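Quick question: what would this complex look like in 3D?
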Amino acid sequence: MIPPAFEYHRPTDIAGALGVIAEHGDEARVIAGGHSLIPMMKLRMVEIAHLIDLQDVADLKGISVGETIRIGAMVTQHGLINDAALSAAAPILREAALQIADPQVRYCGTVGGNVANGDPGNDMPGLMQCLDATFTLVGPDGSRDVPAREFYEAAYTTAREDDEILTAISFAKPAGGYAYEKQKRKIGDYATAAAAVLIEKQGGKITAASIAMTNLSDIPVFSEAAGDALKGTDGTGAALDKAVAAMLADIDPTEDNRGPVEFKKHVAGVILRRAIARAVDRA
Amino acid sequence: MNDMTPNREERVANLKGLGCKRKRVEDARFTQGKGNYVDDIKLPGMLFGDFVRSPYAHARIKSINAEAALALPGVIAVLTAKDLEPLGLHWMPTLAGDKQMVLADGKVLFQGQEVAFVVASDRYVAADAIELVEVEYDDLPVITDPFKALEDGATVLREDIADKKEGAHGPRRHHNHIFLWEEGNKAATEAVISSADVVAEEMVYYHRTHPCPLETCGCVASMDKINGKLTLYGTFQAPHVVRTVASLLSGIDEHNIRVVSPDIGGGFGNKVGVYPGYVCSIVASIVTGKPVKWIEDRMDNLMATAFARDYWMQGKIAATKEGKITGLWCHVTADHGAFDACADPTKYPAGFFHICTGSYDIPVAYVGVDGVYTNKAPGGVAYRCSFRVTEAAYFIERMIEILAQKLDMDAAELRRINFIRKEQFPYHSALGWEYDSGDYHTAWDKALEAVDYKGLRKEQAERLEAFKRGETRKLMGIGLTFFTEIVGAGPVKNCDILGMGMFDSCEIRIHPTGSAIARLGTISQGQGHATTFAQILASEIGISADKITVEEGDTDTAPYGLGTYGSRSTPVAGAATALAGRKIRAKAQMIAAYLLEVHDNDLEWDVDRFVVKGAPERFKTMAEIAYASYNQAIPGLEPGLEAVSYYDPPNMTYPFGAYICVMDIDVDTGVADIRQFYALDDCGTRINPMVIEGQVHGGLTEALAIAMGQEIAYDEMGNVKTGTLMDFFLPTAWETPNYVTDHTETPSPHHPIGAKGVGESPNVGGVPAFSNAVHDAFRAFGLKQSHMPHDHWRIWKTANKLGLHG
Ligand SMILES: Cc1cc2nc3c(=O)[nH]c(=O)nc-3n(C[C@H](O)[C@H](O)[C@H](O)COP(=O)(O)OP(=O)(O)OC[C@H]3O[C@@H](n4cnc5c(N)ncnc54)[C@H](O)[C@@H]3O)c2cc1C
């Protein structure tokens, strides 16, 4: 459980970080909270010659809350939980972040690392797809925005180029009801199944619904069809069944120690039903 | 002077003796991070060793090439079996009479097996170097199922003994068979079963798990070539045994070996055996002349050092229509892995599994245990239990539930009518044990009343109706357990490990100013010996526990003992402590008589002093006596105040308890919510109620883990699927329910202070309580047996099979 040797860099601005990447190319990698990367290094699943620590880069920090919410990549999961303005404007973030790992991990783990990592077990990617968030990437050719719903390609493969740094996440302040529902075996475990749900209602009918699932495929699953199935309904009965069926058609879980595929699908359905019920209730 | 003397009550309180809720003296250093564990030991010039481990569960080794590793700066040596062979150390004897490869000799037999030992200037270089050792393997067919291992034509696992028809425990009937061990009357039991009113039959599997102490195993070996002394620091639950074994293996005279167990971060049986890491470190230190440290990482520990359980228990229990049990039959297929490295007393290859008649008066019984080799890690240790006692308790407590179901009887009532009655003690069980004492009915009634058992059953019935009406998706389970343990191994006449009798010891020195040091042959790994043994002694010799240092673990200073496991410390070393204390008191009485100018018999003991009978103002305190013993010439007496006692227990002790667990099970997600847990323990005389409570909380939490999720699982290729703490369940405060503890007190009649041991009861009794609750929730739907661990998907599968998902 000891990683191979590496060089450690600690730039103070984005340009500095990009400079190290430019110099060392593939051999360089940024480290944020380290709570996904360091375990992989210790298991020698990745070998990195140049580690670029982002914690002194002030531009990657901070949360701004308005009609648009912007979260710096280096904001920790604890930081999300603890930000009163953010929790008031987008309470689903707090609800989800509280279900990530344990307090020790959340003090270190960052939102940027969580979404950039590309591990299907991470909770933030599905959440960001549900929120229809945008990721800002900065590279040698400047800055570009990529929607969360288009960011994930396969496990550990994303739209981010190797020489780009994810600097911020932004999304419109969500309206209506919300729920983040997650089943896990224990504290500190990734999801057996998790569902992020946002619901808007008018006159008892659902006008907008956004649904994304976590750890049920090699990438997060934004299920547009599931959301559509709820529109114009009260979110119960046949509409709910239809939404669940649509979601089940979109996911593709694999067997692991959390259980076989059949079980995961069943739990995904149960979890989604509960999340929708809570979100509808809160809308 | 007498005016200044505290009254009797104050003097008793000052002692902090038996029954005192004294705070643990160890905690000041542990809670401040000031413990001294083996990895804290740093010696000048120390090197670091690490293993190249097998990625395969069964493979032939074609070649090992260490060139690239040796070329890495800082690498001193790479040891393989070839290097150890000239020393005769490429294999080593196990505690169970088998032998085990120290480094892979021609083939590997389990994933994670030690193949080569790299010695380097520091642990970072060692970690890089193990990656550079090139090992070529030819994979062989893998057997992870003990039943398949015994089939005709199954691959030969242990080629070294393939033709041996006789093992350490009798005949072997197959090349992958280790032993058949039997107890009881087979013919009579089978006769009772074939003519019984009712017979319940079931296969009960207690899955493979691991003690997973927070601190992994490790050692520092330091050979001083000038004076020929070997010092071995390590995580040893039995330091003296390690010394003797090290001497026998290495040929170094025993007086030239010093074994030290520093602070140990939990053992739970994992640190009883002798591991290749110890042998390799010693050899490396002898070869290099430098101290060599070896510390496992978490994955090494889970993959390669001793596992626990893995017992397939086929049971038949016979009863009358009214529920009186008439016979018990059990056959176990025991998966021992690649080498038989169980840590049981030598004569008992299945430990004390024959305590499996439990707390019940069963007239006739039989057990047979077949030990089997597979391509899994060796071990089979007693994970927070006496030898195979948890397996036994789980077996009988499941069989009772299954019988209750078959009889359509309440399981609490079935237990009650079959309990051994108070007046039957000492009770001779059908499988040969003499239960020293017990009062099961009193404990059971107290427990049932404490949880309002009738009320719980009523609530459960209502819940079931609501479930059937579709108003809830949660079922309620009530898990009952009444367990009897057998601990305190043990009488030397039938308990030994590698020929070493399982006595234990205590040596006491009283200092002139009235404080003391006591040294024991045991070693605490979190049990709080420094706290509780001082209390035993305080009550015996009238010196406050605060003035008694308890020291263990250094074989150069501690008297010989067999160590700490199997809840043996209080029953054996605790008894030695009390008896050594009594020797001190006997001499103190003579000194006091001289000082007070009366006859010995004219004195009586009073808390912390000897008092002249009928003249309470004339006395000598223990402190005064201690001073005099060193500083005053007393005719006929040697100076000094010291004593030593080696205690060979006349019998085991038999702690018991009643545990009740209530849980709500979500049939759709498989999530089980434990809402209530009540634990009544009877461990005889209670030395420190607070330490007992701590032990019970810890043990119950381990039981929770084992029953609800913890396992060492292998895939068909023999890969360990649960090699990290992401998948191997260690509960945190979050998963841990609230425990309510309670007690009755039935002292052991043969133990000097009546104590029985408690550290392991909660693991032994807790596992069936949790598991029975899961089963009980589904009883109304006909569930007989579903194997542990009861994690979400397995509970879900149970519900699914019973048709509860519509
Ligand atoms: C015991 C444990 C339990 C956990 N449980 C959960 C859980 O339940 N749910 C969950 O979501 N997560 C869980 N995690 C993961 C945790 O949330 C991590 O902190 C998170 O996945 C990664 O964030 P980080 O800041 O630690 O990133 P790091 O580990 O530092 O980096 C992760 C990856 O992202 C890249 N990266 C990081 N920041 C950037 C950036 N700004 N731009 C480009 N690339 C970047 C790194 O190069 C690396 O490849 C758990 C972790 C542990 C140790």
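Answer marked as accepted. The longest strand of chain B covers residues 307-319.
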